Amino acid sequence: MQLYRFDNEIGKKVTHFNSNFIMSRITKTELAAQISCMYLEPDGIIGFHKTVVPQLLIIVTGEGWVRNDDMSEISVKAGDVIYWEEGEGHETFTNSGLTAIVIESEKLNPSDFMPQKELT
Question: Would you list the DSSP string of 44-113?
């Protein structure tokens, strides 16, 4: 498991076409990708299972915990991106609720666009 950031502090200001916003790039896929949104209500859980392909879990709102095969619980919150490799066991749960975007593809390289965050 690797943890990344996508908050506005690492984004780039965009002014093209009279725009005024910050964009934080997350990933680029060369192969097909499945993109989903998951809504975990309070005490929600994505039960422990193994990934079929590499996966990014992008926490958009809320907070919770994740774990993989080898680690104890890691606290996550809005602005965090969790990367799991193919075949890695993982679980996500929350006491207060969270919303996350999930990107699954055979080849993901999150370090191409986002700085890695230290696991805490």
Answer: -EEEEEE-SS-EEEEEEEEEEEEEESS---EEEETTEEEEE-TT-EEEEE-SS-EEEEEEEES---GGGT
Quote the CA–CA distance of 60 and 71 in Å, as a whole number.
23
- Rounded-to-5 percentages of helix, strand, coil across the chain: 10, 50, 40
Q: What whole-number distance in Å separates Cα of residue 49 and Cα of residue 68?
A: 9
Can you give the length of the chain in residues? 120
Which residue is listed with tokens 């725009």? 19
pTM of the model: 0.87
pLDDT digit of tens for each residue in the chain (120 aa)? 888 988 888 889 989 888 898 988 888 888 999 999 999 999 999 999 999 999 999 999 999 999 998 888 999 999 999 999 999 999 999 999 999 999 999 999 888 888 888 876
Strands 98-105 and 55-68 turn out to be antiparallel
The Cα 103–Cα 70 span in angstroms is 22
